[in-house]
Amino acid sequence: MSRHVFPGHTGATSVALGWDRPLNSFFVQVFRPDPGAEGEETSFIWKGTAPGELPSPAAAIEIARPWANLPDDIARTLELDRLKTSATGDGVAQVATKRWVQRDRD
C-alpha cells in the first residue's frame, strides 16, 4: 500500500492518494477539520474502498484535484506504486479478510 498526503484547499485540510494492492484499487481521502475534536481531521470523501473501484491513477486524481494542488507527476508516482506491488501475493490475513468481505457482498 502506498499513501501520499498533500495540503488541502477549498475547505479541505489534507488529501491522501495511494494504491491499495489487496483491493486492486487506487484510493482518495479528503479531510476537513473535525468539529467535535479540536486539532483532529475527519474524512468527508473516501473513495477506493471496494475492490477495483478506482482502477487508474486518473480516476483517483479526478476526485482529488478539486481539493488539493497535486504535483504534475502524481499519476506516474501512483502507477509506479502499483507496479512495485504487482508480484506480491496476499498473506493469510488478507485471504481471510477477502473471503469475509465477499461473503458480506453475496
Brief description of this entry?
The protein is an alpha+beta fold and 106 residues long. It is built from 3 helices and 4 strands, in the order ββββααα.
Distance between the termini: 26 Å
Number of helices: 3
Order of helices and strands: EEEEHHH
Per DSSP E runs of 2 or more residues, the count of β-strands stands at 4
* Order of strands across the main sheet: 1-2-3-4
* Mean of all residue-level pLDDT scores: 89
Report the portion of residues in β strands: 25-35%
The gyration radius over C-alpha positions equals 15 Å
Description:
The protein has a four-stranded antiparallel sheet. It is globular and about 40 Å long. The two termini are 26 Å apart. It is of the alpha+beta class and 106 residues long. It has helices spanning 57-64, 74-84, 92-105; strands at residues 4-7, 14-20, 25-33, 41-47.
List the helices and strands and how they pair.
Elements: E1 4-7, E2 14-20, E3 25-33, E4 41-47, H1 57-64, H2 74-84, H3 92-105
Antiparallel strand pairs: 1-2, 2-3, 3-4
Please name the defining characteristics of this protein.
4-stranded antiparallel beta sheet; 4 strands; alpha+beta; 106 residues; globular
